[in-house]
Amino acid sequence: MQARPAQNPLEMPEILDIIAPHLYDLGPCLCVSKLWRDVFLPHRWRHIQRTIDDDGDRIILSGPRQEVLNNHRHWVQSLTVYGPPREIDMSTYPNLHSLWIDHYMHRVKDKLNYRRVVEWDLAEKLPLLNKLSLDYVYVESQLCQALSKHPNIRNLSLGRAKVESSATLELLEACKNLESISFKDVRFQGEIVPIPEDMVYERMRTLELVGQEKLGYSQVLAMIFHCPALESFIWGAAYISVRISLKHPFQKIRWPRLDSLSISKEPQDPEVASILRGIGSCFGSITFFRLSGLLGPQASMALDSHSSTLVELDFQHGYAPSDAIRDMLCSCPLLKILRAGNIAARDIAEGGPWVCQHLRELTLCVRVGKTEQDLQPLVFEHMSALVRLQRLEVPIENHEDIDGALQFRLDCGLRHLANLKELTSVSFSQSGIVLGVQRLGIEEAKWIADNWKKLCELRGWFNEDPEVLVQTIDILKYRVHVHVARSVVH
User: Fold this and answer.
1) Are residues 19 and 58 in the same domain?
2) Which of 189, 240, 275, 313 could form a Cys-Cys staple with 165, CB 3.0–4.6 A?
3) pTM of the full predicted structure?
């Protein structure tokens, strides 16, 4: 019996369906064969973008021609319109699931066009619409009523919008059936009305409030109390300062699905401390904390109450005092990631042992005073407790501070790190920029090659002596197979 010839995978519609979403230009694929055309043609028209410029006298369009769109309108599922939309753009696509209108009102006179637009019946024109995104929109009662009447809209995004004071409560009412809300730079005219006690957002999974100047901490916290099925909450301002993720049995009783909470506020110590205490009382323990700005004494004390559950701490875009960083290393047993700034070797010496033995990633700039060189072995001894460490980044601020940097040399205590067998990456740079010089010698290179067998990346400038530098790189490169970034320090 003859074996059946193997089928070309590229002649199987199922395979082509998987490939199609990853291709940038589907035009050439339509010309390969009839099979390819039949498979790729619906993907070609699935997402459409149009730009509309209405200068009052004429309408300038860019994108597919309307007569061509009419022939393929049943395949269009996602539409993006840049500029004030026309009625034909809202009523042509019976299977549209996602609509994004950008720069809805980029001129004052567009407000008149908007009043005409909101009279359209979204439920009748776009019955399958699931996601609606509007930028630069003026929220009035007409839009709120259209949202309330639509049976399938579950995701609403408003960007740089203005909400009439008379429409605020109607907007909150229109959102009752939504699963996702994103308000970015939305301006509420007049006073923010409190949410009625009986208004519950039973379907709400994701809530994002960014740049809401009038929404205070108590108002936002009160709002999420009306969302029992919440999974993710982001509250943002102009500058990200606090991001918190949490899981706790107490919080799971009230919000069983919630596992991500982001809060951004101006980095003022009392407010950050108030947030940490409030989140703790409402949600339980915090597992992830990111701060941009200064970690003040009040916030540091409030954060310390969560030390037993913290898993990740990120201060790379902020500042935490040296003693606060030391206390975290000494009191956070579950910590896996720590990205921090400067810590004084003197503070490490005065503190207790590091208990974060689950640490996988550490970014820490250790500062050693000119008269404190004898503290370097003690710093390495503390590091030796991090037996699960995989990524270590030890930057310094600039080339002139090399005398104050922790030196990875055997005579400074490097031997203490022999038990860090899981290290895969060590860097003396920050964000890809070499900021300082180490004084690694040939003996250090041989020691690294012999002890850190899993090391696959070593970045930085290792020695100012060109001859020693070349020999060091050769030893590391051929014995450990590491990649050395040979950036020049000025």
Assistant:
1) no
2) 189
3) 0.58
Kindly state whether residues 23 and 59 are assigned to the same domain: no
State how far Cα 424 lies from the chain centre.
24
Shared-domain flag, residues 50 and 143 = yes
Pair 64, 160 in one domain: yes
Assess if residue 294 is contained within a domain: no
Q: Residue 359 falls within a domain, yes or no?
A: no
Q: Which domain holds residue 98?
A: 46-193
> Do residues 37 and 139 both lie within one domain?
no
**Largest separation between any pair of C-alpha atoms in the chain:** 87
Distances (CA, A) of 383 to 275, 356, 376, 403, 443: 32, 10, 11, 20, 21
The rounded distance, in Å, linking the Cα atoms of 205 and 227 is 8
C-beta separation of 267 from 292 below 8 A: yes
Q: How many domains does the chain have?
A: 2
Which residues are within 8 A (CB) of 54 and not within 5 positions of it... i.e. 6 or more apart? 60, 83, 84, 113
In single-letter form, the type of residue at position 358 comes to H
Tell me which residue of 296, 250, 293 sits closest to 274, measured CA to CA: 296
Mean pLDDT, residues 72-78 taken together: 83
SS percent in the chain: helix, strand, coil, step 5: 35, 20, 40
* pLDDT of res. 222: 66
Q: What's the whole-number average pLDDT of the chain?
A: 77
